[in-house]
Amino acid sequence: MAILCSCESGWFVSHDKLVESWFGDCDFPEVAQPSAMKLKDALFDIRTPFQMDSAAQKQAAMRSASDGSMPSKAAQRRRRRQPRKDDVPLTDFVQPGSWIERAACEIVSAAVARGHLDATPATQQELAGNNAAAREAAASLASCVLRDSEAPVCVGGPMTRRATLVRTFLVPAGARAQLGDIRQLAAFLTGSYDFILVDPPWENKSAKRKRSYATLSRDELLLALPLSRLACPEGCLVAVWCTFNAAHLDFVVRRLLPSWGLPYLTTWYWVKVTKHGEAVRPFHCPHKKPVELLVFGGSAAEALPRDKVLVSVPSSVHSHKPPLSELIKPFVKTSAKCLELFARYLVPGWTSIGNEVLKLQHLALYEPVSS
After folding, report:
1. What digits encode the pLDDT tens for the residues 27-61?
2. Where is this region: Disordered (predicted)?
3. Which of 13, 250, 270, 325 is most buried by its number of CB atoms within 10 A?
4. Nearest 5 degrees, angle CA 71-CA 136-CA 165?
């Protein structure tokens, strides 16, 4: 992610601007394509919090009835009566939701002051639209059904010095992808990596019910990853993406990291906001939070700061997390070897492995950079 501004609490970052920098010089020798590509702007056109269309229409009607940007008195009273349960930490390893919210607000204020976010409230039209453009852009990926026979098993490598097009997938310079189920590839994976990022397909009730993507139980995850064969013997920094779930977090800190022989270091917090700087979900919501966790273990070349918050406008594609390549640079050695497991996209110079490793490289998600 491109770091647009920083303050004591953390950073405001731009997923799309960083990816655009990766594809500023593309080599497309066989097809008539522009030399510079970027993720579609519409993917990040998040102007209002995530909600059902019916709720969005109701909120837009309330905005219209109040003839201004403030909600009605009744709505304000209902909001005040909502209980706040986020002053208690999720577990011993993280800060309470109220702390995360305050830190995010400080970062949002810094981003607004520098012109990266719009401080004005969402308009009635934006409320009624309910991020329609962003949702439609994400749906374009769903229409591109990827069959195993269509995807290359292994692409890229350290010698590819320009971004290239492999079939219908954009491959950044120096990126290497291995397509396959990590449980089946585990016996063959080797390496000596200085930084390893793990983005597990955590098991949850919604994914099970919708069957929208394959998930792994916590025990399956523990058995699937041969970190001892992949980590650099001289020291390795490991980061694990984790949903805001006490059971998952406890598993990562108490079982997963110890099983790899790694000490727990700290947790960072990714807070998702709209273009107006509003959290995409209420912090006090008992079900879904606007926060995902990044749990660190192992060793860092420089002291890793504790409890940092990264704020960004998220992609509308499910589980399209911002790249960490720029953020972790100060904490790994120069020319560090980096690996992502359960990857869904590629990063320049990194090795990425997973059964959806090319999913978010599909041309359907990209557009030319206008001159």
Report:
1. 776 656 667 899 999 999 999 999 888 888 888 78
2. 58-91
3. 13
4. 140
Question: Residue 287, exposed/middle/buried by CB under 10 A (0-12, 13-18, 19+)?
Answer: exposed
Q: What is the mean pLDDT of the chain?
A: 85
| pTM score, whole prediction | 0.88
DSSP string, 236-250: -EEEEEE-S-HHHHH
Residue 107: inside a domain? no
Rounded CA gap, 287 and 50, in Å? 13
What's the number of domains the chain is made of? Answer: 1
Domain annotation covers residue 151: yes
**How far apart are alpha carbons 67 and 204 in whole angstroms?**
41
Q: Give yes or no for a contact between 268 and 249, defined as CB atoms under 8 angstroms apart.
A: no
Integer angstrom CA distances of residue 135 from 142, 318, 357:
11, 10, 22
Q: Is residue 323 part of a domain?
A: yes
What DSSP letter does each residue of 111-162 carry, written as one string? HHHTTSS--SPPPHHHHHHTTHHHHHHHHHHHTS---GGGS-SEEE-TT--S
Query: CATH code at 243?
Result: 3.40.50.150
Give me the residues paired with residue 249 across strands.
none
Conformational region of residue 349, where left means phi above 0, alpha means psi within -120 to 50, and beta covers everything else: left
